[in-house]
Design goal:
Blueprint lengths: L5 H7 L5 H16 L2 H11 L3 H14 L6 H7 L4 H9 L5 H12 L5 H33 L2 H37 L2 H14 L1 H6 L24 H17 L3 H7 L5 H25 L5 H20 L8 H30 L5 H29 L4 H22 L27
Helix pairs in contact: 2-9, 2-10, 3-13, 3-14, 4-8, 4-17, 6-8, 7-8, 7-10, 8-17, 9-14, 12-17, 12-18, 13-14, 14-16, 15-16, 15-18
Length: about 425
């Protein structure tokens, strides 16, 4: 039984890992108050069509395909991974920009159409940079930290982010509904402003991370790099699953535009999702320290297929449709967060340390492109089928379930639930003074 161990958390809580803790806190505020939990109800309130909301939300997923050019970008930056990551993390403080735009709309200085355009551009560009920043921070831990430390830091950063996001989002739904009735759009500006202030922690913390030195990637010549065994199958299965991820319209969008729920309920959906992500992060993070990443990844595909079926059943005629969406949100995010941890662990176990930059960029580029293609299908479907919108959403959820089921069946897994590449004994980490257990 692999349960979260307090001593590992005490190790992560030490001053040695303070920058990683600060990044997690900053990302929690950005993800809670400057991302889809708030911009989806805001854009719909301003009159944006559902297809545009899907396209804006999907831009960061497809934009992450730019990670495929990480080796070339790093060469352009002369291997300055620290500088590149710091530049990207400046997008985490986009809450200030969003607050200014919404304040302009609320004051009547900016009309609704211009507000929709400006908010959409800020979210699309800012979240794309944020996704790339997250990928670079993950890559940073992979090339700077020893594997045992990487397995300690990554999952606990994610768990801390999700724990704080849950605390931030669950009451925010009630505040948003009450604030909208009392002060209108100004409540959105207030949330964005809080996000901007707190998110300043992220770029500040990146400046305090251990310096990786120059991370140079040699130019690849034909046949020079041998593809690690199992990498192609792993990448191809992940591409199939990522296409299914792109097919998913935001659950909050469905709740607002089809079921007629309030903006507060939409934010609560995100809060429940954050709680599910926290559970997935805690469970998978502890297990992956010494367990099979391929089996966790396959289980996460299955969990997300079940989540998609739950959402597909949330048709307007179903009296428990809102409850099914809440269940779907918890399962999607729980399986998704576990899947992200398992994916990173699987990738870094398959690929030698000296080749991680190259193969991580290939992998992220391929999966992001697949997710972007799925999102394009989603947006086109919703744009062409507004009269029977609930049926279009149901078909998209069903398509996502099918994609995740195929990925589940095609996944290649290890012979047991234990990982032969995991450390055989517990390792001491800097700053703990004891063996972590």
């Amino acid at each position: 039984m692999h349960l979260p161990r307090p001593t590992r958390w005490r190790t992560f809580a030490s001053a040695h890992y303070r920058p990683f803790q600060a990044i997690a806190v900053g990302q929690a505020f950005t993800g809670s108050y400057a991302s889809d939990a708030l911009f989806v109800p805001l854009l719909l309130r301003l009159g944006a069509p559902a297809a545009l909301v899907v396209a804006v939300g999907a831009a960061p997923v497809g934009g992450a395909a730019l990670q495929a050019f990480a080796p070339q970008i790093l060469r352009r930056f002369e291997g300055n991974l620290r500088g590149l990551t710091l530049a990207l993390t400046l997008a985490e403080v986009r809450g200030f920009v969003l607050a200014a735009i919404v304040a302009g709309v609320a004051a009547g200085i900016v009309d609704h159409l211009a507000g929709i355009v400006l908010i959409s551009a800020t979210v699309a560009i800012g979240q794309t940079a944020g996704v790339l920043s997250g990928s670079n921070i993950s890559l940073w831990t992979a090339v700077v930290l020893p594997d045992a430390e990487r397995r300690l830091v990554g999952p606990r950063m994610g768990a801390l982010t999700m724990a704080l996001s849950t605390v931030l989002l669950l009451p925010a739904g009630f505040v948003l509904d009450a604030g909208t009735q009392a002060i209108g759009l100004w409540i959105y500006a207030a949330f964005f402003l809080v996000s901007g202030v707190a998110s300043m922690l992220t770029p500040f913390a990146v400046t305090r991370l251990p310096r990786p030195g120059r991370v140079l990637v040699a130019r690849e010549t034909p046949g020079a790099t041998e593809v690690p065994p199992g990498f192609r199958r792993f990448r191809d299965v992940s591409v199939i699953a990522s296409f299914g991820q792109g097919l998913l319209p935001a659950l909050s969008l469905y709740a607002l535009s089809v079921l007629g729920m309030s903006p507060g309920f939409a934010v609560a959906l995100s809060g429940v999702g954050a709680a599910g992500a926290l559970a997935g992060s805690l469970a998978a993070g502890s297990f992956l320290f010494r367990g099979s990443s391929s089996r966790v990844l396959r289980a996460s595909f299955l969990l997300r297929a079940v989540a998609a079926v739950s959402c597909a059943a949330a048709i307007p005629a179903n009296p428990i449709a809102p409850a099914l969406l809440l269940i779907g949100a918890a399962l999607f995010n729980g399986g998704g967060n576990a899947g992200v941890l398992a994916t990173n662990e699987r990738l870094y176990r398959l690929v030698p340390t000296q080749a991680r930059v190259r193969f991580q960029s290939r992998f992220v580029g391929a999966t992001a492109a697949a997710a972007g293609a799925g999102a394009a299908v989603c947006a086109i479907t919703l744009a062409l089928a507004p009269p029977v919108a609930w049926a279009a959403y149901t078909a998209l959820y069903a398509g996502s379930a099918i994609s995740r089921t195929i990925a589940t069946l095609r996944s290649e897994v290890s012979g047991s639930w234990s990982s032969p590449s995991a450390p055989p004994v517990e390792t001491s980490f800097p700053g703990d003074g004891i063996g972590s257990s």
